[in-house]
């Protein structure tokens, strides 16, 4: 009857249980000393009723148990079953703008920058079950790979299929940011976020990054920027051999950090530098914590009162005690 989901409505009554051992001490030690004793030369005539005399204290024990049960009943024990229902009260629309230029094949991250990013981005999507997400890819130009959607399977498939060589090479940061802003301009979400990742310097495109930044700012879109690449040099693809296989050579890593910092600062976002796989994972984990989706939780309580069986059992014990006291034990009273 009593389990981990049991509670007492009036727990203060339970202090009365301290009276039970006091009453027991009074009856079994104090009261017995006050009883009169009759000394007779022989008890042979009382042998048949002797066992009932020995069991007489059972009457008082039953009374004490009945009192204890009534005290517990006054505390009103009850089982509580709690059911929960949640709903998203503040959704976030997120667009990931991903650089897919040739430099994303550099091997300073394992196995290369693009594959490392795809792995981390996929995990990030799994942790955002209540948000809508879209994917924009850019190099020398940009396009929307997947519009904003709540279908995470589509997003995961899109990320898995991202590869180098789909569009003209180059690094058009302004166009990548502009396409992401365009995806969010009609969004009704209370919070709109762009995660812009690049490993280079803006060197092409007809949209100026600062113009795209101003548009994002006017639309209250927050932009987190990520510069991807180690410090120093890395193995970059520079050409293809006769078999079409990429040739890699060491070259300096160049990232326009000043531009990325500017974009983040103007839109109330944050700039990150990912110099390795672990650092990239930590950055996406931090963004995941910074952008919390508000979830409203409703709890429903179902109460089952348990005091009635205690009262019935106490009443039964009292009636049984009275029955025995005025029948079997009548001659001992």
Description:
- The protein has helices at residues 19-30, 50-54, 57-74, 113-126, 152-161, 173-184, 209-218, 257-266, 277-290, 307-325; strands at 6-8, 77-90, 92-99, 132-138, 142-149, 191-198, 221-228, 233-240, 246-252, 270-274, 294-305.
- It has 333 residues and is α/β, with parallel strands linked by helices.
- It folds into 2 domains: 6-35 and 47-82 and 300-332, no CATH class; 92-292, 3-Layer(aba) Sandwich (Rossmann fold).
- The strands form 3 sheets. The protein has a 6-stranded mixed β-sheet, sandwiched between helices.
- Helix 4 (113-126) packs parallel to helix 9 (277-290) and helix 7 (209-218) packs parallel to helix 8 (257-266).
- The chain starts with 5 loop residues before the first strand and ends in an 8-residue tail after the last helix.
- The mean pLDDT is 86.
What is the fold's blueprint, element by element?
Elements: E1 6-8, H1 19-30, H2 50-54, H3 57-74, E2 77-90, E3 92-99, H4 113-126, E4 132-138, E5 142-149, H5 152-161, H6 173-184, E6 191-198, H7 209-218, E7 221-228, E8 233-240, E9 246-252, H8 257-266, E10 270-274, H9 277-290, E11 294-305, H10 307-325
Parallel strand pairs: 3-4, 3-6, 6-7, 7-10
Antiparallel strand pairs: 1-2, 2-11, 4-5, 8-9
Helix pairs in contact: 1-3, 3-10, 4-5, 4-9, 6-7, 7-8
